[in-house]
Amino acid sequence: MSTEEPTLGESIIENDIWPRTKYLIVSYPAAVLALFFVLPLLLLVVVSTFENIEGGFFQPAFTFENYVRFFGSDLFQGRMIYTLQVAGLTTASCLVIGYPLAYYIASLDSELWRRVYLSIIISSLFLTFIIRAFAWQVLLSSDSIVPTVASSLGILQEPVALVPSYMALIVGMVYVFLPFMVLTLYTSIREVDDSLQEASRSLGAMPLTTFRNVTLPLTKGGIVSGSMLVFVLSLGVYVLPRILGNPPQWTLAVLIGNQVGVEGNIPYGATISIVLLLVVGAILAVGWYLLGGERRVSI
Amino acid sequence: MSRVVLEAITKRYPGDVEAVSGVSLVVDDGEFVTLVGPSGCGKTTTLRTIAGFEQPTQGFVGINNNRVNTVPPDKRDIGMVFQDFALFPHKTVAQNIGYGLQVRGYDSDRIDDRVNEMLELVELPKTRDRMPDQLSGGQQQRIALARAVAPEPDVLLLDEPLASLDKKLRETMQVELRRIQRKLDITTILVTHNQKEALTMSDRIAVMNDGDFEQIGAPEDVYSNPATPFVANFVGTANIFSGTVSAIEDGLATVDCGQAVMKSRDTEDVALGDSVSAVFRPEHLSVDTRKTAADGSGDGSTVFDGTVAVKRYTGDQIEYHVNTGTGDSVIGVERVDETNAGEDDDIQLRLSATDCLLLAQ
After folding, report:
1. What is the pTM of this model?
2. CB distance A218–B73 less than 8 Å?
């Protein structure tokens, strides 16, 4: 009967050696996501509602006590704000230092030199945070280069150790995260067509006006994504505050580590982590909103 | 008065690459001049020198009798249309057109009026609030033009503005562009590699090759009296034979071009024994399948006997590529297919001596 003749689509599926193959292909990323990202996150949420037992143990419970404790404590009100400030200052500094750098590299005519500059910037990522943090600890210590030069220039009265301090922390953070900002901005700036800037110039706009009206708005995507990247990385950083800061300079990430490693209060550590995650999520959401609100942005 | 003056402009890039070698040109007020040439001939560099995006290594660039060699583009009072249109993707059509006025600090009412006026000029009044990517190629082109002329610049510079449009649209825009240029009476310099575009749009064309002007003149002059074999070949189609002048009698020159012997009445600038290029247009050849007497001496015409190697029908004419059996190929055209010769058929092409130009080599 002609009505039973399979359509093209059906016949392909029926002749398939293993008709369920496509489900397997789709399920692979789903499985990876579930196993390595969703499940640990759920565990973290569950653990954050558990009760702590002295000595680094915990027992199942369903309590919001940890959250109540955290939101009522100075940890949240003080340290969360402080952590956001550190991340914010790091991001702003990276942007201010990184944009002109990225702009300069992006506007080089020679592809060779662009690659050389980018390679130099990327090369600093070859070393781990820890080594670079210790490097700054050495550089800023009392008998080292930075304080010595600063005192001979009259900026410091005498060579004193600049580490550990808030300034040392910010310097270290900016140093570590600057490449991420520059690389993101570089891509974004390179995508702005030269002829757009020339069109602006031909219409009577001076270089600075051209930058403000054309280049800057067209690189907004790069600015937002670079800033989000650095901000989120800064929020989670653990090593740098430990090495370059004193306890007053410690961020939430360090305090989470202390709750788990020193205090042995795993549920409370999980609670702080969840709140930090929510804050990061909220910031990402705002970032996405900013990106979506602008036409033709590149991420 | 908006004149553009170029005097002995030379542009050398690092590595001793000479893009432009001492070109001079005066574009009068309201004139439409086209720089035409193959890619890499230096025409775009010349235009960018006028715009101020390039600075000449030597020479004088003047706009309105002022030396502008080192004046930045934003201080030159130019309007420019780019090959990719370069509309600001983050601004609406109205913001694009008003940009030049905005940076000059006009108040918003005045900008608004001018934007509307410009949209009327390019016949796209309804696109005001659209974004550039919501426009077709032809519309983007018109908006780019509107943006360039909105601040009433002294000079309009067009850098291959029609190259990215398809043929039909390109021809429409050629007419449009010319209409708007006439209406605004604005001094205009166009750069194109398309010789047809140059011929149809300009008051004068400057044919450029290898960083230098080969010929500057009105389109019909350049077409009918090419100064060099390059111009003859680049502007329109030309048959070019090289040879030596073997005789000049009663204003009729005989040129020995190897196998072919050409007759020409263009004897003014040639002397016996000169090496010349005999240049003639395909449309000047009469095409016939009948074998008439190959009488090259009596009426002073040149006759080519041969077979049709390729026959091309181009819609408005038929093009015969004729193999003359001597290694030379001659192109002749017919308006209508009177001859009705097929490929490999015998054919005869006849050229009057008055239509054969002799150019010094």
Report:
1. 0.81
2. no
